[in-house]
Design a protein that fits this description.
3 domains, four-stranded mixed sheet, D-Maltodextrin-Binding Protein, domain 2, alpha/beta, LysR_subst-bd, DNA-binding transcription factor activity, 8 helices, five-stranded mixed sheet, transcription, DNA binding
Length: 249
């Protein structure tokens, strides 16, 4: 760059030797314009504009309204967006999100992680179930119920389940319902008294069904939540978000 400026200075000096005529004056003006452009600061890259945006990718159901409102109030220069995704960690890896809010366990290899508290598990039972009037149930209370999920998703229930012991093994009732890949389909069967599911409370609350009762499950550890963000020095906005989240949970 220094060499280029020196050469342009010489060009300006040569051009000035021909000033005094319309052609010479035009040459001087052009040479001076080139010299001024070379010494002007480079424009900021277009990607810098992304600094005005902040995207949060969060697992469905995790409540974020209070946190996002507080963060947006403290950072009015940012346009804050929340997207709901089961692949929040992937969104952070690809740069589609600044922060991911996930339920653990999750595949977070290569990402920085901060605790985001815990949430309670609840059992979803048909509204007419004999246990539905309680505020909570134990895993032993649920042992004779049929679990509509993969038993490996709730190993504490699996160890007590009557249908997974003795001659009942291999005859689980779910075989009659076919594959139930979503919570919505599972809750349809719950409402019909065909089984139960055990899920985080925020997930259950997001469904908003009135024909299903949700009871806290005693003896089942709370589900841990975490914030995930890209490795390396974080954006100041990410630091501010994680610090605010720690204070509100």
């Amino acid at each position: 760059m220094i060499r280029s400026i020196v050469e342009l200075d010489r060009l300006v000096a040569l051009a000035e030797q021909h000033s005094g005529t319309p052609e010479g004056d035009a040459l001087v003006a052009a040479a001076r314009a080139l010299r001024a452009a070379a010494s002007a600061p480079a424009p900021a890259p277009a990607l810098a504009d992304r600094g005005a945006f902040f995207t949060i990718a969060a697992a469905p159901g995790i409540p974020l309204d209070d946190l996002v409102d507080a963060f947006g109030g403290q950072n009015p220069h940012l346009s804050v967006t929340v997207t709901r995704s089961q692949s929040a960690a992937r969104a952070v890896r690809t740069g589609a999100a600044d922060v991911g809010v996930v339920r653990l366990p999750a595949h977070l290899h290569g990402l920085r992680v901060a605790s985001f508290g815990t949430e309670q598990h609840v059992a979803a039972l048909a509204a007419g179930d004999a246990l539905a009037g309680r505020s909570s149930v134990s895993l032993d209370d649920l042992a004779h119920h049929h679990l509509l999920q993969n038993p490996d998703a709730v190993p504490e229930w699996r160890e007590r389940a009557h249908e997974l012991r003795g001659p009942t093994i291999g005859t689980r009732a779910s075989l009659a319902f076919g594959v139930l890949p979503t919570l919505a389909l599972q809750l349809e069967q719950v409402a019909r008294a065909n089984g139960i599911v055990i899920v985080p409370r925020s997930t259950a609350d997001a469904e908003g069904r009135t024909d299903v009762a949700y009871l806290a499950v005693e003896g089942l550890d709370d589900r841990r939540l975490a914030l995930a963000f890209a490795p390396g020095p974080p954006r100041q906005a990410v630091v501010a978000f994680t610090e605010l989240a720690a204070g509100l949970r």
